């Protein structure tokens, strides 16, 4: 499930996968291992580069698939 600003947790982490790594030929097991955790912060504390918040989520989603952490 894709994370939206409404479903972004207020704290914790989300999982991200670089979109260019998501191409035909990868099986779901391989993709699962390629997701990386990114810390969620509130907009006042977010650096928008190594952390994500509701203000920069759409920008992250240009290059990454963003999903809630399991």
Description:
With 70 residues, the chain is of the alpha+beta class. It contains 2 helices and 4 strands; from the N terminus they run βαββαβ. It has one domain (12-68). It has a 4-stranded mixed β-sheet.
Radius of gyration: 12 Å
Report the portion of residues in β strands: 25-35%
Low-confidence stretches: none
Number of helices: 2
Give the % helix. Answer: 10-25%
* Oligomer category: single chain
Distance between the termini: 11 Å
What is the element layout, followed by pairings?
Blueprint: E1 12-18, H1 28-34, E2 36-40, E3 51-52, H2 57-63, E4 64-68
Parallel strand pairs: 2-3
Antiparallel strand pairs: 1-2, 1-4
Q: What are the defining features of this structure?
A:
single chain; 70 residues; alpha+beta; 4-stranded mixed β-sheet; globular
Quick structural overview:
The chain is an alpha+beta fold. The protein has two helices and four strands.
